[in-house]
Design goal:
Rossmann fold; seven-stranded mixed β-sheet; two-stranded antiparallel sheet
Length: 293
């Protein structure tokens, strides 16, 4: 269960916890997103995020991925799907936020446990195959929130994603005996690309323009009352330049499903929007300041 965001007295730090599953197709950028979040290269006095730290060994490994792989201009290895769900890594992170309203110097601590589901899980879901599928669905049903990561360039996969997410939502409802409303954040990744970047502050509009069928399916589940849905845009790499920004990456491959790239200039690494979906999943409240970060 989430801790009440507003239960702490004024002037005290507020501790909020969340247990999140990150789900998406291959090359949607799930692990790159988590590594960028863990290393938090964007720290500055103007940011609402004061710090991101690891709270377990797996969280430290994420930071190592960012420092030793991403910052070296190399590509992260795809996340394998273990034979048993208990073998999956639980990435533990603490995100410390400055509180800009209310009591001075009050901090908000987001204590996050996150599991990164391999793209193989999404493929098995689409095909209803794989002996591990049911075990993973049961694990996913235990989460307090789900992040559906969709490559913003993969709009040709819209119909396929509809089938996958619909099967997942039906399976989760069957797997969970508790009558509770879940939160799902649809997160468009790779928004450093020009046609995505210019609309990054309109994530719902952007999602509906790119993935109309998937958004309609999510909205229909929300109307049904079992889910809360919101939309976010993120970039794990960010852009270079202000007047004429270009993606801070070098493209290494592109196909119908996705774009694969590596970081171009680590010294100017400025991701966008990484914390906003996590904050919403953990609190149910949209923080507009984080949408700008």
């Amino acid at each position: 269960m989430f801790k009440d965001l507003f239960s702490q007295k004024s002037g005290q730090s507020q501790d909020i916890s969340g247990d999140i599953r990150v789900v998406g197709d291959r090359l949607s950028g799930k692990t790159t997103y988590l590594a960028a979040l863990a290393s938090w290269p964007k720290a500055s006095s103007s940011s609402l995020v004061e710090a991101v730290t690891a709270s377990n060994k797996n969280g430290e490994d994420l930071i190592g991925m960012a420092q030793n792989i991403l910052k070296q201009g190399e590509e992260l290895e795809p996340t394998p799907l273990p034979d048993k769900v208990l073998e999956m890594k639980n990435y533990g992170l603490r995100i410390v936020l400055r509180k800009k309203s209310g009591a001075q110097n009050a901090l908000v601590n987001l204590d996050l446990i996150c599991k990164d589901y391999a793209g193989e899980f999404f493929s098995d879901l689409l095909n209803q195959s794989g002996v591990k599928l049911q075990e993973y669905i049961q694990d996913c049903s235990l989460a307090t929130g789900m992040m559906l990561m969709i490559d913003g360039t993969a709009h040709r996969q819209d119909s396929q994603y509809v089938r996958g997410i619909d099967k997942l939502m039906v399976a989760l409802d069957r797997a969970d005996d508790l009558a509770r409303k879940r939160r799902i954040a649809m997160v468009l990744t790779k928004c450093e690309l020009a046609d995505l970047w210019i609309n990054r502050h309109r994530p719902k509009w952007l999602a509906e323009a790119r993935f109309p069928e998937l958004c309609e399916k999510l909205n229909s589940w929300q109307r049904f009352g079992a889910w809360e849905v919101d939309y976010f845009s993120v970039s794990a790499f960010g852009v270079l330049g202000n007047l004429f920004p270009r993606p801070n990456y070098k493209q290494i491959a592109r196909n119908r499903q996705a774009v694969a790239a590596v970081l171009e200039d680590p010294k100017r690494w400025r991701p966008f929007g990484l914390v906003s979906p996590i904050y919403w999943l953990c609190t149910g409240v949209r923080n507009t300041e984080l949408d700008k970060d």
